[in-house]
Write a structure and sequence with these properties.
Elements: E1 4-15, E2 18-29, E3 33-37, H1 44-51, E4 59-64, E5 67-68, H2 73-78, E6 80-83, H3 95-105, H4 111-121, H5 137-148, E7 155-159, H6 167-182, E8 186-191, H7 194-200, E9 203-208, E10 211-216, H8 218-222, H9 239-255
Parallel strand pairs: 3-8, 3-9, 6-7, 7-8
Antiparallel strand pairs: 1-2, 1-4, 4-5, 9-10
Helix pairs in contact: 3-4, 5-6
């Protein structure tokens, strides 16, 4: 049985003279949360667009749920869902109406029952019949993710899912993401929020200047951090400190 939800090998993408992805390799285990970290312009969104068939790569291969994104895009789309950086919900409709609309567009059976189930699952029952324009940021994002789950995709891609959210709403979304993975859904997450990756991810990859420069568990990445100078008590490095150390190390090598 295939244990890998995503397999990427030698992936390349350029925009005219700008070489965004320069031979990227990584794998994602089924049912895990995989976080792709990177600064602005590192290529995170380009990566997601390729993996979700919205953009063609220039070289290399990407296999998503056993299907090649270049030669089997329809099969890939059937098994995934994508939630972008900003909630793609209709603010004029109610939460319930949004869910029913997507269910009908996907030709799913019993759209009303499906909407009820998802409203319950995502804690939106009390707000179900209010217009989405009255929702908080966290509620909109939870509704957005609920809509993405209609049709039971095996892999969900979340592109910076907590952008613009306050701390309370961010924690709401983190809880939702953890529940998705606990239920067997594979989650591919891009983020600039290092605490988010630290809290959620089973594995973390750092994309920098078009390449994956580190990939592993949080424990693996901590081993890349210089040993602490112990005087009284050893301080464990945060993921932010690890990230900046790894980026700085690579830039120093590049400047030599």
């Amino acid at each position: 049985m295939q244990s890998k939800a995503i397999q990427v090998k030698g992936l390349q993408k350029s925009y005219k003279q700008l070489h965004v992805l320069k031979g990227v390799d990584f794998e994602v285990e089924k049912g895990s949360i995989f976080a792709l970290l990177g600064s602005n312009g590192a290529g995170k969104t380009t990566m997601i667009k390729i993996l979700t068939t919205l953009l063609e790569q220039d070289g290399g291969t990407a296999i998503v749920n056993g299907f090649d994104v270049a030669s089997q895009p329809d099969d890939v789309r059937q098994s995934i869902s994508l939630t972008g950086q900003f909630a793609a919900v209709d603010e004029i409709l109610t939460g319930r109406e949004n869910l029913i609309l997507i269910a009908r567009l996907r030709h799913l059976k019993n759209p009303h029952q499906l909407a009820d189930d998802l409203l319950t699952r995502f804690g939106l029952v009390d707000a179900a019949d209010r217009r989405v324009s009255t929702y908080s940021g966290g509620m909109r994002r939870r509704l957005d993710i609920a809509m993405s789950l209609e049709g039971k995709p095996q892999i969900i891609f979340l592109d910076e899912p907590t952008t613009g959210l306050d701390p309370e709403a961010r924690i709401e979304v983190w809880k939702t993401v953890k529940e998705l993975a606990d239920g067997g859904t594979t989650v591919f997450l891009t983020t600039q929020n290092l605490e988010e990756a630290e809290q959620l991810a089973d594995r973390i990859a750092i994309l920098h200047e078009g390449r994956i420069i580190a990939n592993g568990t949080l424990t693996d990445l901590k081993k890349l951090f210089p040993p602490a100078q112990v005087e009284y008590i050893e301080k464990q490095p945060s993921l932010e400190e690890i990230f900046l150390t790894i980026i700085g190390k690579k830039e120093q090598i590049g400047n030599e």
